[in-house]
Amino acid sequence: MPGLLSIQPRVLYLLKILIIATSYFILARLSLLLSFQTSNASPIWPPSGFAFAMILLLGYRITPGILLGAFAANFVVFQVEHGATMSAALWVSSFISIGNTLEAIIGYSLLKKLMPDVKDNNYFSKANYIFCFFSIAIVMSLVSSGIGIASIYSGGFINADQQLIAWLTWWFGDVSGILLATPFILIWVNFFRIQPRFSFKRNRSVETAMLFILVILASEIVFNNWFFPVFIFRWAFWIIPVVVWAATRFNQHETITAVVLCSAIAIWGTINGNGPFASPGDSFLGGLSLTQSLLITQAFVSIIAVTALTLNASIVERKRSEEALRDLGNELEKRVNERTADLEDRSRFIETLFDSVEDLMAVFDRQGNYLSVNRKVEEVYKLNRKDIVGKNILTLFPESGETSMYSNMQKAFTGETIHDLAYRSTISKRWFENFYIPLSNNKKEIYAVLVIGHDNTAVMEASEKIKQMAEELIKNNRALEQTNKELESFTFVASHDLQEPLRKIRIFLNLISEKEMALLSDGSKNYLNRTINTAAQMQQFISDLLTYSRTNGSEEHFQKTDLNVILQKVKTELREAIEEKGARIEVTNLPELNVIPFQLQQLFTNMISNSLKFSKPGTPPHITIVAEIVNGTHHNQPNSDPDRKFYSFSVADNGIGFEPRFNEKIFDLFQRLHSRSDYNGTGIGLSICKRIVENHNGFITANGEPGKGATFKIYLPA
């Protein structure tokens, strides 16, 4: 199967070559019946037109068919009819066939080069195409005629006196053959390509039949002396009206068919000695030979062919132009209608959009006349649009002439876009944020100004209220600052005045304990010791309150501080308690931070003191302090930035711990989880720690477990 598929294209190609060669041979044999004496120069040579049409339709690949057909036709004539020697017939026929083939190839090259944009072999659709084709036919025919005449002269088939007439016969024969046969073939091939199915139209078919009948009748009258042997009807111009009718009324395929039919009858009549170009001896033409008469006939039919095709192409081209103009006019009218409808739609859309805007919008000309307003203007001014448009603003609202709105509108006509943030309308008594936008045409000339007014009354009133509230807030802040100062003074004085009597009470109680203790009863001793402890607790309570009240986050107290130094001071301060408890403190390398040093020292003091105080009896306290950098997601605080970095300080101990339900409550002021008899303290220490951490924009959390200790985590911004 693959072998058959590969052989099939070759077989088809060879079959195509054979068909072209056979067709060329038959046409050549018929044309050589009119050949010039013993040569192969014929006045009418359709094979040249056939060869040219085939190479235009099928390309260079079919040239072997043309070469083979031309060689066979010429060889038969020279060998059989003229009795030439085998060698002479072979080489002369070879050169003539080469000339015929080169003629077609050169014509093909010239046509493709001069008319490269022509598609589907439509070389006869325009008048300038036909003139170009006619010129190429004249040039390409010189090749075949030149080579052919040189070959038959060299072969001895004609003498020197016969060269000119033989060359003219050959050249004209090729030209006429190309001008008749090539258009006929190409036009009909294109016709069947475009209209593969035959469609019968009665009126058109009748008119076409009448055309061909009239062509035959007129041609027979002129060229075969039918019906009217009178000399006046024997002139060739009688055929022109019929050809013009064919060219102006019918299509290309019908026109070329009429021309070919007329040409065939003219040639046949001339061969039989009839018609205007068959000249008897007594004629004024001087007694031309048959070959010469056929040359004249050939020139006539060539001119008729070129004229008919040119006239038909011009008329068709004009019709196409008229149709194109008509279609263009229809399309233009359609587009105008569509554009008009589009503009109307856009106008309605703009008007709808204009009215849907909640801002006031008005367009003014240079004189201050209203050109257009939107629905919002009608609502605010309590006027109908028709009562506003066309009127002057100073006529409707005389008081507006002294306002910034009128002056800004005039200024906008200079090309400046103006924004008025706060304009108090004299008409509606409302506040507006106004925009003044100049409008220009295609010539960049400003013809109007668009004024857009955004109602800012609510904003302005709210702004005024905010301003009043801000003034009140400033006033209250000043009063609060004064109150805080007075409170701070009061706290200091109160704590000093309270601590001084307590200090004296404790001194006197201690003196009684030292000197009079032996004289007291056991009950009195108990009362005395309880009084001394209560006074000490009271003094510690006042001291913690004073510390808590002084814990604030003033920026002026912040400074870059090494926390390792702070912690070392705390350990030194608590050395006795640490040694007494046998406590062990492990610390990682702490960072440098921008903090309030004395508050951080207070923080670590309270945290470590807390761990020492709530240690398990009989178990040495073990305190670990670990620092690390974490992001905002680790402390689980609301509204925290997850991308912000924090230093986390974990303070963990192995003390008595506490219930998890106290994780947050433990930081409340005066919150105690144990009785004073078990553990002394005021319940303020962790509240102080929380206040210090919050002063540093941080967070503190607690996590306890009874019997296993507690862990406090402090987060400070990195």
Low-pLDDT runs of 5+ residues are: 1-5, 36-41, 281-286
How many β-strands, per DSSP? Answer: 12
Class from secondary-structure proportions: alpha+beta
CATH class of the largest domain: Mainly Alpha
Judging from the principal axes of the Cα atoms, what is the shape?
elongated
User: Beta-strand percentage?
Assistant: 5-15%
Fold-level CATH name of the largest domain: Arp2/3 complex 21 kDa subunit ARPC3
Count every helix, treating DSSP H or I runs of 4 or more residues as helices. 19
Computed Rg: 61 Å
Mean pLDDT: 79
Helix fraction, binned, reads 55-70%
Count of domains: 5
Order of strands across the widest beta sheet? 2-1-5-4-3
Q: Tell me the CATH architecture of the largest domain.
A: Orthogonal Bundle
Largest sheet: 5 strands, antiparallel
- How far is the first residue's CA from the last residue's CA? 85 Å
